[in-house]
Design brief:
It comes from Microbulbifer marinus. Keywords: Membrane, Transmembrane, Transmembrane helix. It contains four helices and no strands. By secondary structure, it is mainly α. α2 runs antiparallel to α3. The protein starts with 10 loop residues before the first helix and ends in a 17-residue tail after the last helix.
């Protein structure tokens, strides 16, 4: 006969929903906190700012927004995996959403490294520049690894590597 189309409740789906909601709530909290901090600084400060106030507030806002974006991408990836009907569809959606998340993480790492470089140069602590440079190179290495993964991974799940020249125009 026909099966009930309702999804079965499993431990995996319950925890996936909990984590996805937790990531979304934390993302919203970081976003609201960053906007309120930035607005409070903007409206409570005098017209003329001291030398390093504006860059510090902007750098902290950028760092917080990068973290919020990464958390939102985690939420999106988890939600895609929750709504997958079959195992093959789940694997296909994971192969589509994981590179996007990794790219966001790489961009976040590169921006955090750049923010740290700017902050250390402003504070004239050039001897501590090794750590942010290592973060930037780590982001680059992660992007290279993603490129290699995408090159060796099949484009469609269940389809072996077939030459693209077989299509007719």
């Amino acid at each position: 006969m026909t099966e009930n189309p309702k999804a079965k409740i499993s431990t995996h789906s319950v925890f996936a929903w909990i984590f996805s909601l937790l990531f979304l709530i934390l993302c919203a909290a970081i976003l609201i906190s960053t906007i309120s901090t930035f607005a409070q600084f903007f409206f409570s400060s005098a017209i003329f700012y001291s030398e390093n106030e504006i860059p510090e507030v902007i750098i902290n806002a950028i760092s917080n927004l990068i973290i919020a974006l990464a958390m939102f991408e985690l939420y999106v990836v988890i939600k895609i995996n929750i709504h997958a009907e079959a195992q093959l569809t789940a694997l296909h959606s994971l192969l589509e959403s994981a590179p996007r998340f990794i790219i966001v993480v790489c961009a976040a790492l590169a921006l955090e490294g750049l923010v740290l470089v700017i902050k250390l140069i402003q504070d004239q602590k050039t001897e501590e520049l090794l750590a942010p440079i290592a973060v930037i190179f780590s982001a680059a290495a992660l992007l290279v690894a993603l490129g290699i993964f995408l090159k060796i991974c099949p484009r469609r799940v269940g389809i072996t590597d077939a030459p693209d020249d077989t299509r007719e125009i």
